[in-house]
Design a protein that fits this description.
mainly alpha; 73% helix; elongated
Length: 124
């Protein structure tokens, strides 16, 4: 039995899942838009994604897409969550109720701490 499983949190997992899905959609779109049947469509699609250079460049593009989306997505989700807490306080919700709700969110402990800090620091 595995006991040291890391805790999956929305702010860490969602950008990675979106990045992988985007890479899959890019690959399928380039493959099926080539108009060529069979394995040649894969070759043509990867070459197209590699900006016309070669298949290897397409593979690099395909592999780099989830990394870029993940790097952009994690801070974006954090900012959205913190700003959501700030707006709830500014719209008149009870500060303690907002802090209690934060504990229910599937976010990392670091992000929850930033959200609690924002809730305490925001003036109504």
């Amino acid at each position: 039995m595995i006991t040291n499983m890391p805790k999956l949190t929305l702010d860490k997992t969602l950008p990675k899942a979106i990045g992988i899905a985007a890479a899959c959609v890019m690959y399928l779109a380039s493959k099926y838009s080539s108009g060529i049947p069979g394995a040649a469509s894969t070759t043509k699609g990867l070459k197209t994604m590699g900006f016309g250079m070669n298949m290897e460049a397409g593979l690099v593009t395909l592999g780099g897409t989830p990394l870029v989306i993940s790097a952009i997505g994690e801070p974006t989700i954090s900012r959205l969550a913190v700003n959501g807490v700030r707006k709830r306080i500014l719209h008149g919700e009870d500060r303690e109720a907002v802090i209690a709700d934060i504990e229910k969110y599937p976010f990392s402990d670091e992000l929850k701490a930033r959200m609690r800090e924002t809730a305490r620091a925001t003036s109504e």
